Amino acid sequence: MTLQVAPPAVGMSEDVRAGAERQSGWLVVAEQECRDLWTSGRGLVLLFLFSVLLSAVTYLTSTNQALNFLEQRESVNLVLQFAVAVGVLATLVVSADGISGERERGTLETLLVTPVPRRSIIADKLIAALSLWFATFLVSIPYVWVLARGVGILGQALALGLCVGTLVALGLGCIGLLISAVCNSNKTSIAASIFLLLILFAPTQLPSGLPQGWFFEVLLRANPVASGLAYISSMLVEGHSWTQDLSFLITPLLTAIIAGGALILAGPRLVRLTRGVNAG
Amino acid sequence: MRKLLLIGLLVGIFTVLPSPALAAAPLDAKVDAEPAQVSTVLGGRFKITTPITNTGARPSGEILAHLNVASIEGSVYVDPEDWSSNRSQQLSLQPGESRKLAWEIQAVNAGHFAAYVVVVPYGSNVVGNEGLVISPLVNIDVASRSTLSAGGALPVVITVPLLLGLAAAGTFFRARRRGSGR
Which CATH number does B22-143 carry? Predict the structure, then answer.
């Protein structure tokens, strides 16, 4: 990352100047992180691939002439779940590149010498990763609209996708940054994050015909992705009220709080140059 | 004399003792259904009400009103559970008492259907040969509604990736040109 911090104004007291530097530095780093993601084309390429996948799923769903009214709600649910799951995956991949990628590219040293607290650097990385989640959500809006306009659940589906998806993306983004801060190699960090995501998605892919006892329920509720998606299903398909299955959101909320808390507490110690990697 | 007494005693016992078959009393009730006709579209929700009146001189005891839906034209498969999640209501009525039961229904198939409510006795002392009380049919016409089609989805399915692909390619090549210019 090439960072350009504006020079401090002349005639300011030391404390005020330091505070202003820290504040403006925080904004500059956040802006730079987002610019790195979006103007390099990396974010747009991910969005393009995301839209191709979503187009394929939406087209297959809409060409099924046998869909009746009730099943159309299920098709909205399917596309929304797909959008949330892939959006979260993209967020995790970008956040997993956050610290280890800087280390490997030799730009972490430059970043560490800027007058910005390390916690702010982590927060900026998280903002950049979450910007990708919000972009994937924006892209998914027309697809959800195509499927949901006839059954009158467009507003509900979009509100659900935004709230649940943001919560899950926040938790997994924090986990991705933690993994990235711990790993020396970018490859290890991204591989570990994708493996973690696969573990989290595995229970959601179990055939619905399997006997679903208490173990399945525990597995579902312990998993922030699966329980978030189950909450979306319960409202969209089963027509439950928003308070009825609120317990499904406990795990995503706890994940965001615990991973976010760990990042705030341990982040400044983890974001450092390590021996044996290219320090630029 | 002894024989006569014995015969009299046996006749008396068989007359006084209630046999299971004799215990079953017909339900003295009347069920109506309102409205008689419903026209809606696929997915439409509507409500029908069935006033149930105890027309007999005795309390009805526990009775169960049960809603059913049947296709009366063509060969549309009907799963009544999809139409209404709450299809049974338990009640008891005093002589002359009337109660209106409401049924929430959602039309999940297109076609011509009939909904009706049947009242059956309820409890462990039901024998099985009690008479049933059935409401008149409610005619339901459900028009199909096709909101999902490949043609409707096609503009979005093509346009969004196309625009994003162009934007990504433009940004990518501009970033490369900027990088090689330095």
Answer: 2.60.40.10
